[in-house]
Amino acid sequence: MTRWKKWALAAGVAALGIASGAGLDRLTATTTAPAAAQDLKPAVQLPITRVVLFNSGVGYFARSGEVSDDARVDLTFREEDINDLLKSMTLEDFGNGRIDAVSYDSREPIARTLASFAINLNGNPTFANILTQMRGERVEATLAPTAVNQPGKLTGVIVGVEKQKAPAGNTTIDVEVLNLWCAEGLRAIKLTELQQLKFLNPLIESEFRRALEVLSLSHDTQKKAVSLYFSGKGKRRVQVGYVMESPIWKTSYRLILDKEDKEPPYLQGWALVENPTDDDWENVRLVLVSGRPISFKMDLYNPLYVERPTERLELFSSLRPVTYRSGFKDDKQRGALAEADMDASPSLQGRSGALAQGLGAAPPAPGAVVPAMDRGDALRRSVQERQNEAFARETAADLGRRLATGAVGSAATAANLGDYYQYIIQHPVTLARQKSGMFPIVTKHIQGQRVSIYNQNVQKTHPLRGLKFKNTSEAYLNQGPITVFEGSTYAGDTRILDVNKNEERLLSYAIDLGMEVDPQVGPGTQQITSVRAVKGIITTTTKFTEEKRYRIINRSEQDRVLLIEHPNRSNQQFRLVETDKPVEETPEFYRFQTSLKSGETKTFTVKEERDVRTTVQLSNSSDDQIRYFISLSQSSPTLKQKLQEALTLKGQWDAVRRELQQVVADLQRLHADQDRIRKNLRETPSEAEVYKTYLKKLNDQEKEIDGLTAKQKELMAQEFQARKRYEDYLANLSD
Length: 735
What we know:
Domain DUF4139: 238-607
Strand content: 35-45%
Shape: flat
Coiled coil: 691-718
Distance between the termini: 84 Å
Structural class: alpha+beta
CATH topology of the domain at 637-731: Helix Hairpins
CATH class of the domain at 637-731: Mainly Alpha
Helix content: 10-25%
CATH architecture of the domain at 637-731: Orthogonal Bundle
Region (Disordered): 339-372
Protein name: DUF4139 domain-containing protein
Keywords: Coiled coil, Signal
Low-confidence stretches: 1-40, 315-381, 399-418
Largest sheet: 8 strands, mixed
């Protein structure tokens, strides 16, 4: 590429980091074009010569051509594309010239323009809203004829619009009413009875008409003109590049499988490209980039006004609160496919043509687009590869200019946003405006092994026919649909997600009716495996075992390799036991592989187990828990002995507690009997014989109560000591 002489950045740096490069001598763009340049005859419009499409919804477009002396280049763009144009456009002059200016149709925001009129028509105002804005204006109102009045005219001043309740059958509704100050007084007119309204103020009439004209003009055109002004002498090449919103390019694939499995699978990938512009692409160099660059929209076309604060003199202002921001504080896959010998044989090199003939396709017409990866002789391929490398370097230089004015850091950051892969269409592309096209981007043999894939949640009875392949195409495969052929026979459809180079992936495309799988749930078991005690807390470990049996029969005439997708429950603490290791493991599934000969029946068993731990705090409320753990065969003899000692202590505590309860019951009985005796004494004469008997019995009970009270105090102390010994023993019980 020739050394750049002079070039200028006309508007911003692209969000994708495209507008960056080296060799900027000086920036010469001005805000207005020279007066003489306004009369220049338009040059031939620059055709599109290069297109780089990203699968993130944008595209880079480059126009280049020759201009002579001072020239103006006129381009037109859709109004919705102007913002992207202003954000990303770069202009270059490769001769002894300079860029004077870029001019474009500008306009005020329509909302701001409409708000400047006496009647604001923003937001589609209603009749009542317009009348409310005109309070105080004189109007002439024409009333519609009704049953109670004749059509007539009223002249007055608008006071306002209000809502009133009006009867409507068995209910009421809100009715908007215009309050008008007339010569005879205040009048209320329903808007439904108002047939015509005329503003008597000529200025208001003019303002209303002009506001409607602004609305009308805003609908007149959807295209905006952009003029590029170049100054210099002689003929020279110029270029303009910009990023604009563009449909994402898509991919679709064809996968050809050999019926006899004598040849490796053949993958053909196509890129689907749309030209939604109003320009024909003629002999355009096309590059398709797979990646996820960051892109955004920004309103640069509409004039923007910054709201300015109102300052007051220091004499009248008081100190405002100051606010501060806080500172900153500091799977590994199992089982790979065997490497296959991919040396191309004559039969393989002619396969794409044989496929086209097998499918009934006509030979390519003269001048038609040929596959980008044509397998010719070694010399021709070497020359073509050198041309592609040169074009790739040229494209990369065009997309990655580093500005000498300090933009190098931004370009380096943009380059580190993520990896990408580009497909270069080797031959210039011709695509008419508003047309779509398909271009081959991958034509390679890949490593693959036919398999049947069974997943109970997908199809309970039959597995799916599929392929386990390795992406040896030396290209990144974009996500997209795949049509599968077996020889020249359609076999089914499938789709893949993005596949990196040398990555292994599964795909399925049809139901395998030759195989049948019957999933059966085996008997589940649970067993306590261990019992341990630590500080009065006993932990039991219970092992739960689950079994799944897959009964498989191969009724086809060919041997089969079956992949069984079994749910991966490692996040639920399940682990595989007494089961073959899976050939592959994903977060959702284990993939087990088994082979079946024709007519063979086999049962594949997947056994899983997990341990569940339960903790129990030994308490002094009941000894049933202690007896339960003593009865477990998994409890050690030492633990059982210690638990038996705990029961002995619990028995001693229970004996003291029972004796104490008996003393308390005796005291309650005596107190109740004394209450009875005292009542009898109050009712019995003192000289009666029974009175003395009551006194003697009351005196004897007092002595008995004194003895029981002393015993109760002694037993309470014994009960406290017995309970403390038991609880301390439980708290320190370990094994």
